[in-house]
Amino acid sequence: MRELTYVARRTVEWREAPDPKLRSDGEAIVAPVAATPCDVDSAILAGRATRRKPQIGYSIEPPFALGHECVARVVDTGDAVTAVTPGDLVVVPWSINCGTCDRCRAGLTAHCSTVPHMAMYGAPIGGTWGGLFSDLVRVPYADAMLVPLPAGLDPVAMASASDNWSLARRLVAPHLQARPGARVLVVARGSIGLYACDIARALGASEVLYVDPEPEHRAIARRYGASTAESLDPLPQGFEIAVEATGRVDQLALTVKCLAPEGVCESAGNHFRPGELPLLDMYLTGVTLRIARDNVRAHIPDALQLAASGKVAPEKVVSHVLDWEALPTALPEKHLKPVFVRNEA
């Protein structure tokens, strides 16, 4: 089989690898059918994740297999697998988790204690698990990890349920449930922020302001019913909920300054650079700030249920639908949210 392999900044290539084999009766082999880069993949392709190893504390030097968002077709399963069968379409979560340790049972699937810290697809952190831009992928804990795609949902629209789509729901849904009709601020550069706009409006936000320098991104946000701005006015604006997904600490600092008293900010950006936050302002306002890698497996079922409700339109974020074979040439290009589709015939 082939793995799409990151070899240098803006450079990926197909490399041959042995076909994965079942290593236990609880595993599955899947074949991605619709895969898409997430916002951290964009950082890897730009070289930001590998240039700054001292800040992140891990070495992710190339070459390594890339990709951690996809809908896949189950090809084979071990005898103990009961949740899926060959032929099923499934969402493959980005992090590796066993489903049975204390952390997994508590919903902390990104912190599974059975596997090495930060075990994931798409980067050689916490072991080597391959990437989801591969012809075949081994899933070590099939019943715990794989989530069947509900009938009627388009694999292209839901290719990001492995991470960004499900993360976006988690960023806003619990807070809007606690604060119905809240004003929501989204400061972003990629798909997470746009998904958050769609979900916030669908779940009853009274106002959504989307801030992004890219005109094409702002146009999508307006189609979701958000108001938009090219840059953020640092004056307090009274937002109860904010989402920052830029990966820039200066933008996070401006975001928290826009919160209402006791407001909450979810930071979903990958901050590879250090920076300063306005801690005194945050203290005086009573800001709650959460910066966390996402326990996405715990949120995928609810995110898929929301997608199936018809209240949201994640397909509007898909910028291009491209052939699987175009991955080496098209993936390094700067597209918002391309989805690469494999012909199963």
From TrEMBL:
Record key words, sorted: Metal-binding, Zinc
Cofactor(s) listed: Zn(2+)
Domain Alcohol dehydrogenase-like C-terminal, residue spans: 192-307
Database matches in InterPro entries: ADH-like_C, ADH-like_N
Domain (Alcohol dehydrogenase-like N-terminal) ranges: 25-149
Protein name as catalogued: Alcohol dehydrogenase catalytic domain-containing protein
Source organism of this protein record: Streptomyces osmaniensis
